[in-house]
Specification:
Replication-relaxation family protein; two-stranded antiparallel sheet; single chain; Replic_Relax; alpha+beta; globular; about 260 residues; Arc Repressor Mutant, subunit A; 2 domains
Amino acid sequence: MTKDFTEILERLTGRDMELIDALARHRVFTAVQLADLCFPSTWAARVRAVTLFEMEVLARFRDDNRKAYRYTLGYWGAGFHAWRRGEPAPTKAAVALAAHQLAVSRKRGHLEGVNTFFTRLNAESRQVGGVALSEWLSEDEAAGLFLGKVRPDGAGVLTAESGAMPFFLEYDTGTEPLAYLAAKLDRYAAKQPAGGHRPVLLQIVRPGRERNLHDSLVDRQFPFPIATTSTRAGLLGARWRLVGSERTVRLSELGAGAWS
């Protein structure tokens, strides 16, 4: 270990290390997402993110038409993550290339949408109390539950005193035909994930598209609950419409075995 490594490591908090781990798994956050994840306010998240950027723990970029910076792992952040896993540290060139590829990726908007869902759910859980997002799996981690045969956009577990509810997430940007979503639900039904089937949540880009999806799935049956929402807030409330029903429910009401 070099002197620089030790000096920077001594300046990192436990929350900083959790943030490094989260970015290694989920790749990119805005200051708002950081606040929803683990800071008391967006201002506090932005101040710490700037400090970590200046320390080269984080890297950042932003689009020409966007004011908000996007944060990802910088040289030291990637190095600390590798060190904790017993892996060789990446070079500065490799870290810079990874940040650039993320910045220009056509899939980044979808990734940011998925991350917004989970960080918002985490923030709302903290605000409500008595419930927590106790697990959040990335796309790759969630796909591992299906041995790669199905690739959910993410997976999570909501935990309350009465039990836990695992779920898969599909985040819709409106760019794919609804038949694609229906076919993916068929793949969920055909493959048994590790731990058994879970409710599948779909966050749909707009209400009209959500209604059309329900119409396309009418009279279809699946071995797990499917619920949709087009809202971006109040995710713990009665904002979820069950496929095959006109009812809107809370996440805690999703099917037999929820919170069990």
